[in-house]
Amino acid sequence: MSIKISETLTFECETGNYHTFCPISCVAWLYQKIEDSFFLVVGTKTCGYFLQNALGVMIFAEPRYAMAELEEGDISAQLNDYEELKRLCFQIKKDRNPSVIIWIGTCTTEIIKMDLEGMAPKLEIEIEIPIVVARANGLDYAFTQGEDTVLAAMAHRCPEQKTEIEKKKKIEDKSIQKIFSFLPLKTKEKKKKSLKNQFPLVLFGSLPSTVASQLSLELKRQSIHVSGWLPAQRYTDLPTLGEKVYVCGVNPFLSRTATTLMRRRKCKLIGAPFPIGPDGTRAWIEKICSIFNIQTEGLEEREQQVWESLKNYLNLVRGKSVFFMGDNLLEISLARFLIRCGMIVYEIGIPYMDKRYQAAELTLLQETCKKMCIPMPRIVEKPDNYNQIQRIRELQPDLAITGMAHANPLEARGINTKWSVEFTFAQIHGFTNAKDVLELVTRPLRRNNNLENLGWTNLIKIQKG
Amino acid sequence: MKLAYWMYAGPAHIGTLRVASSFKNVHAIMHAPLGDDYFNVMRSMLERERDFTPVTASIVDRHVLARGSQEKVVDNITRKDKQERPDLIVLTPTCTSSILQEDLQNFVERASMSSDSDVILADVNHYRINELQAADRTLEQVVRYYLEKARRQGNLNISLTKKPSANIIGIFTLGFHNQHDCRELKRLLQDLGILINQIIPEGGFVENLHELPKAWFNLVPYREVGLMTALYLEKEFGMPYISTTPMGVVDTANCIRQIQKHVNIWSRILLDKIFDFEPYIDEQTRFISQAAWFSRSIDCQNLTGKKAVVFGDATHAASITKILACEMGIRVSCTGTYCKHDEEWFKEQVQNFCDEILITDDHTEVGDMIARIEPSAIFGTQMERHIGKRLDIPCGVISSPVHIQNFPLGYRPFLGYEGTNQIADLVYNSFTLGMEDHLLEIFGGHDTKEVITKSLSTDTDLTWNSESQLELNKIPGFVRGKIKRNTEKFARQNNIPKITVEVMYAAKEHLSA
User: Fold this and answer.
1) pLDDT at position A421 over 60
2) Least CB-CB distance to B52: which of A71, A91, A406?
3) Which residue has the higher pLDDT, B464 or B118?
């Protein structure tokens, strides 16, 4: 099998036999993000065992999530779903008293067609706690898309924007150029010192609060005020949404949330590359500024400074090759950043590619490849891990970014790996955290510099195949 | 529905996958949605496996929901057959596929026509049995399949090996210290002059299973996995089996005596020879294993009557309970297991060695029990370790569920004579060391500056005045929580809202009275 590296972005689709985490794993970071929430995963032992094993230690810190473990009686409808959920939710209310209970629907609830969406509003009235339903199941979604389903469900719960403040402001020339990008709004008034965006801007995507405030601060420097985050630190602080509200995503896997915000909440979506890496962050800020017709200030210098500070890492990665097996949808943005760092990307595996939501990111990827004079990587949607491993064998990349199922076996075969999951949990957004991305990427390379001369790279016995 | 935060035994398919992937050149295909293949992560991370885990998923997605798997499962089986040329492919149902009620058996039959590998459907009901039961069942199923196949093909060899030999049944991947135990058992049998016929499933080839009946007897070290297979072999081929776990000095000797009994039945006839293992047992017990000497040594005196709690799978919990009670003189206040299906056996085993028995798979019950008893040490699973952390009680891990720490690189068996040493170390190190214990008692501890933050009681209506707080801080760290709770309990019982030094002493007197 020979592999050609093409000159344009090519999209392929394989069999979908790949390893990724189940989307219910989103409870692991979301329960920590939304402090007053309680996540109830309605599923089987299989789901529970996954959470327990994949999320390891967190489970012991008295987490605000639990399984509603379905038993045979639930499956065969001998028990009344509503009564059962009511019993559990009252227990949760008694023990934890959360401000919101989020029901996570799983494969099983899909198959037995448990009407979670139907039951929630009724129970909500009885129990007097909001119940949000998100179907984050492995039948439809992969890993980080779980967060997407939760945020999309939460978008419905955000309070409606009161429009009176905006009434004074006049909007001219609000014609839509494409579906996702807008012509700049022309407004004559320009206040000097105060924040300049005349319409509220809500950012969506769950980030650790420090990262969220870093990004807000970056925008504030360009005199853009972030009026809220979806999700906020507390459920009770959900941002207001409405027709006049602009929204922008911070993560590449939030296409459902974006769609919900646009279609159901009538918000205006700013389609931008994602603020991962200094190049991404700058492009993200520039795009937002352009929407509000604001001239950016000092962004180029700021980006340059960050690149300057990354010098040591860049020396390590320059000219090295990367292979993304694909499992968390951050792949396009990470690949784009790594190409800008001087790396060669052979393949970007990705579970699901929303070309519209990621349009700006894809364009930036293409531009970056041209700028760096590097051949365009192939983008493989729904990859097939078996085939990918054959390709990895052939290409011998310097680094494979992969799930934990393949990391150790690849290492034993002399291929450096980095667990892709770490990119989901590490702080990788904004100017400040560009270093963390490279810290992760270079870790196996640095480790190897230390072990290089020991002569035991390949640690398996040679056998057939 | 059950509100669950944590579970001791995993879902059934995990058991099946553990058995399948322990065999060499066997591939398992799960009929499961995306993301259910986290077994690969567990195996790759916990066991630090160098090879790709031979488990793939035939993905159940929306299309499958709408139209059924149709050709998908068959295609995936035949594809895997071509790619990896395994000897056997095990189609594994999951909770999802058991609700879909597709005719997986039919897929298996169709696929086996077009593939060179054998194909079987793991016969496990997801909603009725757990990981361990499923593993037991799958192992039996695989063994039965190959013995019946051999019988059909006429190449079943049931003549015994010339020298006495044994099969070790039930060593498998992700088992608690299984690899080390396996090595220790091999050494033990070698010492006794007994050959190893086969070890299954770990590292075994299914193509060799038809040779199983050649062994003189079967050794099943763990109750959870292998008993069904041993029973099947006994019924079909009259093979005797030993299910006494050789854990601890006493049971190791018991196990060896049973081996002697079984071996002598045949060796008297075939070899005209009688084996006598008693000198070996005596030598090992008194001089090779340090455990017997340790329990006589003055160190161990300090452990006399100390309270311990044991919890784990049936095999380990029962064995450790007996070791603590009989071999070390420790008082086991409560012992328990999450193997509810094996309740009867467990109760019978530990009846006379503990104050109470707890059979549950609800970790909060276990936590409450521990908090109530306040033992000096816990011997349990990773869960109990965390309960112990919260309550400030040391814990030695003696059973799965496992954690990466339970896959040590060094040699740490729990079975056999080296196992007795390891267990003695584990037990001894879990209790506060004797002299340190005394010194702490005499001098009031060396961490008196520590602020008390961990507390189980949620009520805040009690206040400690500054003197009593100071006095409390003088108490050694590891008993401070207990004293605090006892004092507060006493105060509450007597309606005393404010705790003074006097109240503390009154409480102490009240308790010791």
Assistant:
1) yes
2) A406
3) B118
All residues of chain A having their beta carbon less than 8 Å from the beta carbon of residue B83 are 386
CA distance A67 to A51: 9
| Residue A276: DSSP 8-state | B
At residue B456, what is the residue type?
A: L
Verify whether the Cβ–Cβ distance A50 to B36 is below 8 Å. yes
Residue by residue, DSSP assigns A214-241 as HHHHHHHHTT--EEEEES-SSGGGPPPB
Q: Per residue, what are the HEC states of B284-329?
A: HHHHHCCHHHHHHCHHHHCCCCCEEEEEECHHHHHHHHHHHHHHCC
Alpha carbon of residue A83 to chain centroid: 35
**Interface list for B 38-67 with A (CB within 8 A):** 38, 40-42, 44-45, 48-53, 56-57, 59-62, 65
Is residue A168 packed enough to be buried (19+ CB in 10 Å), middle (13-18) or exposed (0-12)? exposed
Q: Which residues of A are annotated as a binding site for [4Fe-4S] cluster?
A: 22, 47, 107
pLDDT in tens, A324-356: 999 999 999 999 999 999 999 999 999 999 999
pLDDT at B66: 85
Please report, to the nearest 10 degrees, the dihedral formed by the alpha carbons of residues A329, A334, A339, A344 taken in order: -60
Interface residue of A1, A19, A26 to substitute, partner B, most B CBs within 10 Å: A19
Exactly one of B75, B299, B361, B362 is catalytic; name it.
B299
Q: Which residues of A touch B397 (CB under 8 A)?
A: none
pLDDT at B441: 62
Determine the angle formed by the axes of helices B343-350 and B314-322, rounding to 10 degrees. 10
Distances (CA, A) of B197 to A265, A304, A313, B424: 70, 68, 55, 31
| CB atoms closer than 10 angstroms to residue B160 | 16
Helix-helix angle B477-493:B501-512, to 10 degrees: 90
Q: What pLDDT score was predicted for residue B479?
A: 73
Q: What is the tens place of the pLDDT at every residue in A129-182? A: 999 999 999 999 999 999 999 999 999 999 997 754 444 444 433 433 344 344
Question: Is pLDDT at B307 greater than 80 in this prediction?
Answer: yes
By Cβ distance, the residue of A46, A71, A74 closest to B11 is: A46
Q: Are B57 and A17 in contact (CB < 8 Å)? A: yes
Question: Helices then strands (H, E): number in chain B?
Answer: 22, 16
Three-state secondary-structure class, residue B461: coil
Q: How confident is the model at residue B450 (pLDDT cuts 50, 70, 90)?
A: very low
For residue A184, whether the previous peptide bond is cis, meaning omega lies within 30 degrees of 0, is no
Binding-site residues from annotation of A:
22, 47, 107
User: Is B33 within 8 Å of A92 when comparing Cβ atoms?
Assistant: no
Give the pair of three-digit tokens for residue A109.
């609830």
Measured CA to CA, the distance from residue A213 to residue A207 in angstroms comes to 9
Give the DSSP letter string of A152-205.
HHHHTTSPBPP-GGGGGS------BSSSS-BPPPP-----SSS---SS-EEEES
Gap between the Cα atoms of B148 and B150, Å rounded:
5
Cα torsion through A228, A232, A234, A238, rounded to 10:
50
Q: Between vectors from CA B321 to CA B455 and to CA B329, what angle results, nearest 5°?
A: 90
Across all residues in chain A, what is the average pLDDT? 87
Element (H, E) at A306: helix A299-309
Whether residue B392 lies in the annotated active site? no
Question: With contact defined as beta carbons under 8 Å apart, do A342 and A318 qualify?
Answer: yes
Note the ipTM here. Answer: 0.86
Q: Tell me if B3 and A49 make a contact (CB, 8 A cut-off).
A: no
CB contact (8 A) between residue B52 and residue A63: no
For A62, counting Cβ atoms within 10 Å of its Cβ (0-12 exposed, 13-18 middle, 19+ buried), the class is: exposed
The percent of residues in chain A predicted with pLDDT above 70, rounded, is 89
